[in-house]
Specification:
CATH architecture of the largest domain: Alpha-Beta Barrel
Catalytic activity: Hydrolysis of terminal non-reducing alpha-L-arabinofuranoside residues in alpha-L-arabinosides
Family: Belongs to the glycosyl hydrolase 51 family.
Number of domains: 2
Strand content: 15-25%
EC number: 3.2.1.55
GO molecular function: alpha-L-arabinofuranosidase activity
Largest sheet: 8 strands, parallel, barrel
Helix content: 10-25%
Pathway: Glycan metabolism
Number of strands: 25
Bound molecules: alpha-L-arabinofuranose
Length: 483
Amino acid sequence: MAIKLLDEQTGPKISKYIYGQFSEHLGRGIYGGLYVGKNSDIPNVNGLRTDVVDALKKIHVPVLRWPGGLFADTYHWQQGIGPQKDRKKIVNTNWGGVTEDNSFGTHEYFELLRQLGADAYINANIGSGTVQEMAEWVEYMTMAGESPMANLRRQNGQQNPWSVKFFGIGNESWGGGGNMRPKYYSDVYRQYQTFLPQYDAKHPIYKVACGPNEDDYEWTDTLMKNATKYLDGISLHYYTLPTGDWDHSKGSATDFPESLWYSAMAKAQLMDRLITKHAAIMDKYDPQKNVDLIVDEWGTWYDVEKGTNPGFLYQQNSLRDALTTAITLNIFQKHADRVHMANIAQMVNVLQSMILTKDDQMVKTPTYYVFDMYQKHMDAQLVEGQGDVADRVTYTASKKDGALTVSLGNYDLTHDREVTFTYSSDYQEIAEATIITGAKMDSHNTFADPDEVVEKAFNGAKLGNGKLTIQLPAKSVVSITIK
Ligand code: AHR
């Protein structure tokens, strides 16, 4: 495969928010995974696990969506403030019917963001919450001066307002978030966004409307037709199910046949078609591309691990996930002109996680290592390529500070590929080259063997005679930076 990179006429900026995360009050995503409370024996800072936060800091999480997901439309933020012992205990009706003690609330979320250095993406409750409740939450979080909610925040120990970068108005409003029809939702969105207070004129809160599920193009069309001038972004949800079967078996995360390896790759690639078609509809109403597409739920979804609560969505993560991640991130980068943010579901212990925990133990998943590897693309300029891409190969390229990074995946299970890139600038050396691969297609990390799939130095690339030549091994993700 030979590709000519157009590295002197770079494309749009690849927003760092494409590397965003999502954490919901679901299973052990927050409780146990991120938050253990100040009195836990597990080392923590203000209740947040030190081991997990340290690992996440290394991948520079740019933004964290919270508190859901479906949970968001049942969440009443007032129950999660004030002394923890007085907070209302509720039932998490979406996820396992377990008790939610509200010990992780608004203050704890912003403490997590502070420790991670991440921006806020709050999803409001419009399913069972009022306009006033939403407006008061924003007042509580962001009002600097004197006001009832700002005073309450101060009374609860937070003097200064926090900054809310992104704000979601509705989650899956076409389904579990209210079963609304698109025209009705468009009006609900218009109403709620009207009362979203903007207390910081210099940093207005970016509004995300509930966009389509997968290929629901009618939803996108209706929303754009009726609400474009009130939108900053619209969301898209799409999950990769290797079996394609929501109702019976989604398949195992680790014990699967080759056919489900390849179908996972094909399903991950569907993201390209979805974005292309939704973006074409958006172009009709918004040719200037003022409204972004925000893929705020994506990732693989398998059957839960045996013996775990089905409502907790706890799944392992293998080399297969590393490849579907590379495919998906490459697609997001290709569409950097429309896709401004994406949030993989979900950061810890739920669905396609970065990290899995068991009591005081923690393990980084193959997906974590792809996010680590791809950091070089954050806020870089997209570089387009010309040439035919080999079957079962995916690649992306970007340029930052004069350095060119190409990241590739070869999801063929047996055949290596030779890939050659040519370019215009005069690059002198390979600054960094790493690979993620494994002995088997379902190689994965466990608490007993946490380093089965990790990012390692790669020595299969050569720079010379105006080209970069890569021997790309089967079932691997590789990233090379030249400068
Ligand atoms: O990520 C798990 C769930 O998937 C979210 O709560 C919901 O929005 C989606 O259906």
